[in-house]
From TrEMBL:
Keyword Transcription regulation: no
Keyword vocabulary terms for this entry: Isomerase
Top-level EC class: isomerase
UniProt source species: Rhizobium herbae
EC number(s) recorded for this UniProt protein: 5.3.1.30
InterPro entries associated with the record: Deoxy-glucuronate_isom_IolB (IPR024203), KduI/IolB_isomerase (IPR021120), RmlC-like_jellyroll (IPR014710), RmlC_Cupin_sf (IPR011051)
Protein name: 5-deoxy-glucuronate isomerase
GO molecular function: 5-deoxy-D-glucuronate isomerase activity
Signal peptide: none
């Protein structure tokens, strides 16, 4: 199994390029472009659908020649909700940075007759989950109930420093609906201030997989299976962008039984 902690390759250009092949799984792909104003990123979705998320900065985006103009508002992922663009399979896209830009390219197998769509801030209201030091703030970009994609689920979360997230530990690694869905998942992490770090553990009940990682600004963690709680260290707020996909576009999870008494909603 590949290393579950993926460091960025350099500080500019395509700094992450995670494919199903490189991750050793079937569904999820994740890329991250870090561009200067005037630089261009392009892609072709082929048989995969894509969600372009403006993590930070602004860009002029077009899909199959249709120009959607300049999109983006926030200059860091800690400043409000994102702009995103859904790109169906068989399409070409282009993003021209108009400011410094962090552009996430989230992908999964395509299908169906879905159309290109700009997903604007406020499309799905931010939610507060948990309580006390398990409080975090969730913005669905492409949730399961929007019927806007074939297999792709995309969400971002802000976890204040000193708080936990994806907690109590839960998993979604069995194709056993309606009890549980099988979803691979990536976490793209950002820290504020950027020199901070957070902790993430990925483990299974039998501990055949059990890795605990210190994640730094710009890292990606892979969750092929198992539980995957996160802890933000005091003084450093944590942002992460999740991409999930599997054989069914349903997020149905199960909590670790020994921690169920802590349950406050994930």
């Amino acid at each position: 199994m590949p290393n579950l902690l993926v460091k960025p390759k350099g500080t500019s250009g395509l700094v992450h390029d995670i494919t199903p092949e490189s991750a050793g799984w079937t569904y999820v792909g994740f890329g991250l472009n870090r561009l200067k104003a005037g630089e261009v990123a392009t892609g072709e979705s082929a048989d995969r659908e894509t969600c372009l998320v403006l993590v930070a900065g602004k860009a002029r985006i077009s899909v199959d020649g249709q120009d959607f103009g300049e999109l983006g508002e926030r200059m860091t992922p800690f400043e409000g909700q994102p702009y995103a663009v859904y790109v169906p399979e068989g399409s070409r896209w282009q993003a021209t940075a108009t400011t410094a830009l962090d552009l996430a390219v989230c992908s999964a197998p395509g299908g169906g007759d879905y159309k290109t769509k700009v997903i604007r801030p406020g499309t799905h209201p931010q939610m507060t989950r948990g309580k006390a030091t398990n409080t975090r703030y969730v913005t669905n970009i492409m949730p399961e109930d929007d019927n806007a994609a074939h297999s792709l689920l995309v969400v971002e979360v802000i976890t204040p420093g000193g708080h936990t997230s994806s907690y109590p530990p839960h998993k979604h690694d069995e194709d056993n609906l309606p009890a549980e869905s099988l979803l691979e998942e990536t976490y793209y992490h950002r820290l504020n201030p950027a020199q901070g770090f957070a902790m993430q553990r990925v483990y299974t009940d039998d501990r055949s997989l059990d890795e605990t990682m210190a994640v730094e600004d710009g890292d990606v963690t892979l969750v092929p299976k198992g539980y995957h709680p996160v802890a933000a260290i005091h003084g450093y707020d944590l942002y992460y962008l999740n991409v999930m996909a599997g054989p069914s576009r349903i997020w149905k999870f199960n909590n670790a039984k020994e921690h169920a008494w802590l349950f406050t909603g994930v």
